[in-house]
């Protein structure tokens, strides 16, 4: 059993949304007000009481651990075709990014991604995953119905839209890049951590709507406070999900909801001896894939001046969800890139939008 770090870290002060209030009188309005305030001030928050048992969560971590015990040769059989073009249903091996040019140290992040269970994206799974696929599907669907649907409802209420606005644009049965992910971070030695500046994954934003993260009690996630631009540690909390807002929601709200900058760093010294396993669900972007991510014109925020996203402000074509998703995924999947390469860190991936790595 892992223990929470005992070091005195500079923790972010994040709000916890208690979804047990969701069905109560006035509960939705109270939660909606808390949600929009924390999205504006922090971009990250916790969720508790979301009707998924800890036993079910533990089972998913167990499946993830078993997967990463498979021989490398076995896992490599499930690397998706088109990975370099942004297609990554399946296994993404570590070592695609160079973290330190002088020593040649590469990243040690492995990903296994399982797309939504609606038949739109088909890929082979190792026997371990096939043996547990019904349980995995049930868990993924619960994340959508018990967490994402309420969050989308609360966001709509906060933005003075019909309650079902975002639920209707994020239906599970509609084709999208939503996916469940097992993500392993293999540890570095103290000397290696020093060489890479303790940065395992540099500061970035996610491309979709919301990211849901179950965490072991290993401190490694940091967010950049959007108001003060300071890096803060995000504390692992029992029986909660850690949630952050992403690019697509920012585009749809004309920048009112911020896409939160975050990174993964070396754990504090009392936890650097362990590997880190993450269990995540990515609500990628609002389907359908053919729709354009133009700013919603009926927002309650309209009078506050948030009426255009970055594409509209620069007079460039607003991309479809599909174009945006696969363009950013292709950038994320760039192989052999050095994280200090400024051309990569600030590249224009679509007319009017420059990607950025944050140090």
Automatic annotation (TrEMBL):
<dbReference type="InterPro" id="IPR044861">
    <property type="entry name" value="IPNS-like_FE2OG_OXY"/>
</dbReference>
<protein>
    <submittedName>
        <fullName>Clavaminate synthase-like protein</fullName>
    </submittedName>
</protein>
<dbReference type="InterPro" id="IPR027443">
    <property type="entry name" value="IPNS-like_sf"/>
</dbReference>
<feature type="domain" description="Isopenicillin N synthase-like Fe(2+) 2OG dioxygenase">
    <location>
        <begin position="184"/>
        <end position="277"/>
    </location>
</feature>
<dbReference type="Pfam" id="PF03171">
    <property type="entry name" value="2OG-FeII_Oxy"/>
</dbReference>
<dbReference type="InterPro" id="IPR026992">
    <property type="entry name" value="DIOX_N"/>
</dbReference>
<feature type="domain" description="Non-haem dioxygenase N-terminal">
    <location>
        <begin position="17"/>
        <end position="117"/>
    </location>
</feature>
<dbReference type="Pfam" id="PF14226">
    <property type="entry name" value="DIOX_N"/>
</dbReference>
<dbReference type="InterPro" id="IPR050231">
    <property type="entry name" value="Iron_ascorbate_oxido_reductase"/>
</dbReference>
């Amino acid at each position: 059993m892992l223990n929470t770090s005992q070091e005195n870290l500079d923790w972010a002060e994040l709000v916890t949304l208690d979804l047990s209030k969701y069905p109560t009188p006035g509960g939705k309005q109270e939660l909606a007000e808390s949600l929009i305030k924390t999205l504006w001030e922090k971009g990250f928050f916790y969720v508790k009481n979301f009707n998924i048992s800890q036993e079910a969560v533990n089972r998913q971590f167990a499946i993830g651990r078993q997967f990463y015990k498979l021989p490398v040769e076995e896992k490599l059989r499930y690397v998706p075709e088109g990975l370099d073009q942004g297609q990554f249903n399946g296994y993404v091996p570590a070592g695609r990014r160079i973290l330190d040019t002088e020593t040649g140290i590469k990243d040690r992040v492995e990903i296994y991604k399982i797309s939504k269970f609606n038949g739109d994206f088909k890929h082979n799974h190792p026997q371990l995953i096939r043996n547990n696929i019904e349980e995995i599907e049930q868990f993924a669907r619960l994340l959508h119905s018990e967490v994402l649907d309420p969050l989308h409802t609360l966001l709509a209420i906060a933005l003075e839209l019909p309650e079902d606005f975002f639920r209707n644009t994020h239906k599970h049965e509609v084709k999208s890049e939503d996916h469940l992910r097992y993500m392993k971070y293999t540890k570095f030695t103290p000397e290696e951590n020093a060489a890479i500046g303790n940065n395992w994954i540099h500061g970035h934003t996610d491309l979709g709507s919301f990211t849901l993260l179950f965490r072991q009690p290993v401190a490694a996630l940091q967010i950049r406070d959007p108001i003060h631009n300071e890096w803060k540690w995000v504390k692992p909390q029992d029986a909660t999900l850690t949630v952050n807002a992403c690019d697509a929601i920012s585009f749809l709200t004309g920048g009112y909801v911020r896409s939160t900058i975050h990174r993964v760093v070396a754990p504090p010294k009392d936890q650097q001896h362990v590997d880190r396993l993450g269990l995540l669900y990515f609500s990628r972007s609002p389907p359908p894939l053919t729709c354009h991510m133009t700013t919603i014109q009926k927002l309650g925020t309209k009078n506050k001046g948030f009426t255009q996203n970055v594409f509209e402000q620069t007079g460039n074509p607003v991309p479809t969800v599909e174009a945006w998703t696969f363009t950013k995924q292709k950038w994320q999947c760039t192989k052999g890139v050095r994280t200090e390469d400024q051309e990569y860190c600030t590249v224009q991936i679509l007319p009017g939008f420059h990607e950025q790595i944050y140090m």
